[in-house]
C-alpha cells in the first residue's frame, strides 16, 4: 500500500514526510526543493491485541509500543504541483508519473496563506485555491489517460468486438486502478462525458484528504474555517509538520516524553530558554487547540477510514499465538475490509492460498471456511496442506 503526499511547492510536503518518517530530506522555503520523490515508511497505529490476550508480543513486520501497533505504510513525497501541471508545467509530468501506484493522496495545504500557487512567498493568499487547482490537475491527468483508452476502443471496435471495460482496464492498470473500480464508475456515470468519468474514477481509485498544514501560524485559524466551509465534503485535518519534527527530535534527545496526543518536558537541563518557549507555543497553539500535530491522525484516517483497511494477525500456532520460530503475534497485516480468509491466504503466499484448507480463530478456536470475512484484530491460523 502506498500513500502519496501531494501539494504545491513549499506547502510543507517534505516536512510532513520527514515528520512521518524522520528521514533526512531536503526542506527549504523555495519552490521545487523536492525534484526526485522521497520514498520512506510511515506508520499507522492500532491497539495491539497483545493486551487482549495478555501476551507479551515480539513483532517482526511492525512495532508494539505501550500496547500500540505501529504498522508500516509506504509514503511517497513527490515534486510540487503547480497550475497546468497536466500540460507539463513545472515538474508536472514527473509529479503525476510518480503517483501512479498511490492508493490515497494527502494534499498538504499551506494554511497560513504565506505562499502563492507556485510556492513563492506572499501574504493573504487564499488556501482554498490550492485545493481547487490540485484536484483539477489530477482529474485532468486522469482524463488524458482515459481519453487515450477511449480512442483505442474506437479504433478496435471497427475491426473486432471489444468491450470498453476491457480496453479501459488495459489502459488504466498502470495507474493502479482495478477492473471492478472502473466497472463501478461506468455503471454510475457512463463514458459519454470523459472528464466527468475521469473525475469520478479518481475519487474512487485515488481519494484525496486534506492536511491543513502550518496550523501554528497566526493566519491559519481563520483560513481553516474558510476551507471547512467551502469543502465540507472533504476530510480536512489540521496539521503542524514542523511541531511534529520538533517533538520527535526532542524525544530522541531525552527532553520530552511524547505520545502523539500529549507531551511533557522531562529534562529542562537539555534545552535553552528559546527551545523551552518553542515547546510552550506547540503546547498552546497546536495541542491546546487541536489535540495533536495531526500527522498520525492523517495517516490513520487515510489508511483505516478512507481506504477501509483493518488489521489481521496471522499465526502458525493458535494456542501459543506464535509463528514457527516462537515469535508471539509476529505480524500485523493491513487488509481491505471485506477480505475473505482464502483471499488473505493468497496475499500471504500463493502456495498457502493454493493449498488452503481452512482456518482457526484464536479467541473461540472455531473453524473458519474459505468465505469467512475477516474482522478487525482477528488472530488467525491458516490451515493448508504441508506437502
What does this structure look like?
This protein starts with a strand and ends with a strand. The protein has a domain at 310-384: Roll (Ubiquitin-like (UB roll)). The chain has twelve helices and 14 strands. Residues 24-35 have low confidence and may be disordered. The strands form three sheets. Strands 1, 2, 3, 4, 5, 6 and 7 form a seven-stranded mixed β-sheet that branches. Strands 11-10-14-12-13 form a five-stranded mixed β-sheet. Helix 7 (220-230) links the parallel strand 6 and strand 7 (236-238). It is of the alpha/beta class and 387 residues long.
Q: How would a crystallographer describe the biggest sheet?
A: 7 strands, mixed
- CATH C-level class of one domain: Alpha Beta
- Identify low-pLDDT runs: 24-35
Oligomer state of the chains in this structure: single chain
Helix count equals: 12
* Rg value: 23 Å
CATH architecture of one domain: Roll
Terminal CA distance reads 32 Å
Could you please say which CATH topology of one domain applies here? Ubiquitin-like (UB roll)
What is the global morphology? flat
Number of DSSP E strands: 14
Sequence of secondary-structure elements: EHEEEHEHHHHEHEHEEHHEEHHEEE
Mean pLDDT level:
89
Strand content: 15-25%
Structural class: alpha/beta
* Residues in helices, as a percent range: 25-40%
> Could you state the CATH homologous superfamily of one domain?
Beta-grasp domain
